Amino acid sequence: MTPPRKSIHGSWSSRLAFVLAATGSAVGLGNIWKFPYIAGEHGGGAFVLVYLACIALIGIPIMMAEVMLGRRGRQSPINTMRALAAEANANHAWRWVGWAGVAAGFLILSYYSVIAGWALAYVFRSMAGAFSGATAEGVGSIFIQLTEDPERLLAWHTIFMVMTMIVVARGVKSGLEQAVRFLVPSLFVLLIMLDGYAMASGAFDEGLRFLFTPDFSKIDANGVLIAMGHAFFTLSLGMGAIMVYGSYLPERASIARTSITIALLDTLVALLAGMAIFPLVFSNGLEPGVGPGLIFQTLPIAFGHMTGGVVFGTLFFVLLVFAAWTSAISLIEPAVAWLVENKGVTRVHASVYAGAATWGVGLLTILSFNRWADFHPLSFISIFEKSTIFDLLDYLTANIMLPLGGLAIAIFSAWVMRREDTVQELDMGDGPAYRLWHFLVRYVTPVAVIIVFLNVTGLVDFSHLFRAG
Ligand code: PFF
Description:
Number of helices: 19
Shape: globular
GO molecular function, one term: symporter activity
Oligomer: single chain
Pfam family, one: SNF
Subcellular location: Membrane
Transmembrane segments: 12-33, 45-65, 96-124, 153-170, 182-204, 224-248, 260-282, 294-312, 352-372, 392-416, 436-460
Membrane topology: Multi-pass membrane protein
Bound molecules: 4-fluoro-L-phenylalanine
């Protein structure tokens, strides 16, 4: 048995603190902003079903694998992969999994921060009463005014990046744990209230039907890849965010139980958000497939008409900002931890370097919504015909980099690492639960990721299986 290593960055004060931080990382814009709009774009029910299946069969086992690798390696994902590869006598190229994760984190945060900036802007719009009595049209034009102005977007993006750098610079423990403790429960309460409002909106049934009645003729291979990619994105998997959080986890915490808890909370938030939004979409004659503006064009209508809407609307966007904030910090933590370990810089400097680089890349996303809105660099590929740079960054990271990262993590954990080491680290014995995990990570994840990729590239076509009936 190898003695446990120790992290130089400190550790969470308890198992609960880890659950809160990892939940904070998982629950974010992905649940409230992205899930509804991509479900809307890909026809609803069938997409949601594929997404849920991916969470259960791929997401939870990969989350356990990432936490396990992090806790065993106790360093930034790059150094963890290097150390664990050495321990297993494997090729040191495995450290590239860590590097790819750092790159994915940068790219994701670069656009994530811009969208979080929209949420920040909406806090102030809501507070000023801009939504009171608003119609779908009025709310739509508020959204367009914001996104068509690069200077405003830049200002909010800058504020959000600075907020992120401040928390990351302060380190693992202070601030973060507290924020999530308050955030997750409040978010639940607010979403349930919004669901109550949606229930009375007259189109609740239609919304639920859209979300939960699978119609497989509405989803194609690309839709399946997007659903799978989103399972990685929403659980913060495939890039080392959960791995680095796992490296601060105290010994003797059940990895299986914590992973399941985090995944359930995350899924619940996404479904509650979807159930609030689609009834509003239908009762206001809006299109479910409008894209990234969906929540910003629907929820304000509800706030504009309910009693106390100014307070609730403001609170909702504040919570959304918090949710994005606790995710953003996990997106650059792998890079920051590596800079501290390998470059001998302080956390403060590391946060500034990593944050400034991300901020710069964010300009591409800002321009995608205005000056470059008609620039479609890959328009010669049919699925990217209308994709802006923002769309491509999102596609590249969520649907390609994260699933590939997940695939590598699966292969490493279940084919490269010694079985007895994973039994020891997961600490749940060698019974049916361990075997189920091992089977899912060893076979199900790699096969699923590879099949879905082959399908999208058109090399193999399984679509007749869906349409057989
Ligand atoms: N899980 C976050 C969300 O759903 O908003 C986004 C995210 C955070 C993705 C951290 C990846 C990551 F490593």
